[in-house]
Design brief:
elongated; 191 residues; mainly alpha
Length: 191
C-alpha cells in the first residue's frame, strides 16, 4: 500500500523559507507525468484532462512505475471517483454539499461549524480541493497516502470520512480562535 513506504526528504529541495518541495513536484517526474497524462487523455477522450489529474498522477508516480500509475489513475477516475473528473465536476460538487451538511449536523463539530459560519468562510473553498486532489498537498504526504489506502478500499466515502476527521481534529483551534475569516482559512488550508 502507499502508506507503508517511508518518505525521506534527503535529496528533496528545500526552499529558502524552509519548506520542503513535495516529491510529486520535482522536475524529474515531469516527463513520466506528461506521458501518463497524455496516455490517459488519449484513452479517455470523453474526459481528456481534468483539473487535479496532474497532482494525482504525480503522487502516484512517487510510488509506481508509469504503467501502474496510469492504471491506478484510471481506477480513481472511472470507479472510485467517477463523477469527480468531468467537465462540470458534478461528483465533487455533490460531495462538497454533503460534507457541508454532515459537518453542520455532527454534534462534535458544532463549535467548529459555528466558528466557520461566524467568520463568513465557506468550507467549500477548501473542501473542493481536498476532495478533488484526494488531499494531495493538503495533508502531509504520508498522511495523504494513508487516506488513499482507505480510498482504494472503500471508495470516495473515505474522502468524506477523512474530511470530517480533519474538521474534528481542527475543531478546538477553530472554535477557540473566534470569527476571523483569514485565520479560519489559514487553519483549514495549511493543515
Amino acid at each position: 500500500t502507499f502508506g507503508r513506504r517511508r518518505l525521506s526528504t534527503v535529496g528533496t529541495p528545500v526552499a529558502k523559507d524552509g519548506r520542503v518541495t513535495p516529491p510529486y513536484q520535482l522536475a524529474a517526474l515531469a516527463p513520466p507525468l506528461r506521458r501518463v497524462l497524455r496516455a490517459f487523455a488519449t484513452s479517455h477522450r470523453a474526459v481528456g484532462y481534468c483539473q487535479a489529474m496532474n497532482f494525482i498522477a504525480g503522487a502516484l508516480l512517487m510510488y509506481c512505475r508509469e504503467e501502474a500509475a496510469f492504471w491506478l489513475l484510471c481506477v480513481l477516475t472511472e470507479e472510485l471517483n467517477a463523477d469527480y473528473y468531468t467537465s462540470d465536476l458534478v461528483g465533487v460538487q455533490v460531495d462538497v454539499a454533503l460534507l457541508d451538511e454532515l459537518a453542520s449536523a455532527h454534534p462534535s463539530l458544532r463549535a467548529a461549524w459555528e466558528a466557520i459560519e461566524a467568520s463568513g468562510f465557506q468550507l467549500q473553498l477548501v473542501s473542493q480541493q481536498w476532495l478533488l486532489l484526494a488531499f494531495v498537498g493538503a495533508l502531509p504526504t504520508e498522511t495523504t497516502f494513508r487516506v488513499w489506502d482507505l480510498l482504494f478500499v472503500a471508495g470516495s466515502p473515505a474522502l468524506l470520512a477523512a474530511s470530517l476527521a480533519l474538521l474534528r481534529t481542527l475543531a478546538g483551534p477553530l472554535a477557540a480562535g473566534g470569527a476571523d475569516f483569514e485565520r479560519v482559512y489559514a487553519q483549514l488550508k495549511c493543515v
